[in-house]
Amino acid sequence: MKVLNIVETAYRATVEEQDDTILWLSHNLKKAGAEVSVLLRANAVNYAVEGQNASGLSFGAKKQTNPVDIVRDIKDMVAAGIPVLLVAEDASQRGLPDDRLIHGVEKIPAGDLPQLFDRFDHVWHW
Amino acid sequence: MTAYLYIESRDPFDSADSRYFPDLVKGTRERGHKTTLFLVQNGVLPARKGSQFSDRFRELAEAGITIYADDFSLAERAIGAADTDSHVQSAGMDRLLDLLLEPDTKAVWH
Amino acid sequence: MSKTLTLALMDAPYEKAASTTALRLIHEALSRGHNVNVFAYEGAVNLTMADQKPHANPVKGTSLEEEDHPTTKEWIGSLFELAENKGATLKWINCGLCVDERGAGNWIPGPVRGGPPHFVAFAKSSDATLVIPTK
């Protein structure tokens, strides 16, 4: 079963979840036997940028000792054989330079999305 | 032949991203797939006759895309039959379910 | 012939229109004798929480009885009854980790605890799968 998971709402509950919940789910679905690819679009294209840092939070005396690390999670997904793509126009509109993107993330023009969708049994827009 | 069912729940007046989904719908149709756009929740708001998105519905319909709007969402927003864009048909959950369960259909909610 | 529909739900109750649409779709499918699988992820695990209580409405001045405030646990309980009456199956998985972090483990009869592998199994065995995301 080939699944394309589209992620478009970034930084939603990442701090308390210690993950992006859909990236986490995608990795989990892959482990459960689905052939998963991830497409980052809209503000979620920013997940592909090196240097994200959500550390340093504390509330009262309670510190966030194990903060979310989206860069690590994207790299782990790529290493696990999960293709991670991003919509090229969404990245360029947001001024994301190519040399700041995580190695292994593939850019795809927006106009090619219908063709991309044809390669999957399911297209799940999260 | 693969069919695509795109379900739009978002209000295009609310987002600078409002071209994304119609472009996707049209691009899918251009690849020869049976393509349906089903508006639901605040996604039905542009289906009111005279909205600034009328041209968009005409363009999609002329491309061979069937456009439905959820009957409950229309009624909840006081968009009656006479108020609804001529390219948009009112339909209920029964129609949505039929479309979902059609063989070889990919359903994409936005 | 009966078919099987799988839904992934994410929204917490009392907040988003998508919860209503999802319940309507489930009702329609079960009414026609189709089987429905639900994977409740994130806030959607709260849909079936047993401790939900109806309330009076001080703005409208209605009593508890007059208001007859719906709860999602009652609606979903009613959908389980509908499934039984129609000879259809409603399988409802609450994502276990989502339940734990929300303290949402006390739910009505019907749903069971599970995780993403159940969703994969649902999707593989269904005629259609629809993800209804949160925003």
Draw up the topology in text.
The complex is a heterotrimer of chains A (126), B (110) and C (135).
Chain A: E1 2-7, H1 14-17, H2 21-31, E2 35-40, E3 58-59, E4 62-63, H3 70-79, E5 84-87, H4 88-93, E6 106-108, H5 113-117, E7 122-125
Parallel strand pairs in A: 1-2, 1-7, 2-5, 5-6
Antiparallel strand pairs in A: 3-4
Chain B: E1 3-8, H1 20-30, E2 34-39, H2 54-62, E3 66-70, H3 71-76, E4 89-91, H4 93-101, E5 105-109
Chain C: E1 4-9, H1 17-31, E2 35-40, H2 64-67, H3 72-86, E3 90-95, H4 96-102, E4 112-114, H5 116-124, E5 128-132
Parallel strand pairs in C: 1-2, 1-5, 2-3, 3-4
Helix pairs in contact in C: 1-3
InterPro entries (chain A): DsrEFH-like
Protein name (chain A): DsrE family protein
InterPro entries (chain B): DsrEFH-like, Sulphur_relay_DsrE/F-like
Keywords for this structure?
heterotrimer; A: 126 residues; five-stranded parallel beta sheet; 7 strands; C: alpha/beta; Hypothetical Protein Ychn, Chain: A; 5 strands; 19% strand; DsrE family protein (chain B); Sulphur_relay_DsrE/F-like (chain B); DsrEFH-like (chain B)
Provide a descriptive summary of the structure in words.
- The complex is a heterotrimer of chains A (126), B (110) and C (135).
- By secondary structure, chain A is of the alpha/beta class.
- Chain A is 29% helix and 21% strand.
- Chain A has one domain (2-125): DsrEFH-like (Hypothetical Protein Ychn, Chain: A).
- In chain A, strand 5 (84-87), helix 4 (88-93) and strand 6 (106-108) form a beta-alpha-beta unit.
- Chain A is globular, with a radius of gyration of 15 Å.
- Chain A starts with a strand and ends with a strand.
- By secondary structure, chain B is of the alpha/beta class.
- Chain B has a single domain (3-109), classed as Hypothetical Protein Ychn, Chain: A.
- Chain B has helices spanning 20-30, 54-62, 71-76, 93-101; strands spanning 3-8, 34-39, 66-70, 89-91, 105-109.
- Chain B has a five-stranded parallel sheet with strand order 4-3-2-1-5.
- Chain C has a single domain, classed as Hypothetical Protein Ychn, Chain: A (3-Layer(aba) Sandwich).
- Chain C has a five-stranded parallel sheet with strand order 4-3-2-1-5, sandwiched between helices.
- The longest helix of chain C is centred in the first third of the chain and has 15 residues, at 17-31.
- Chain C is globular, with a radius of gyration of 15 Å.
- The termini of chain C are far apart.
- The A-B interface holds A 41-42, 110-111, 113-115, 117-118, 120-125 and B 2, 4, 17, 20, 23-24, 27-28, 30-31, 106, 108-110.
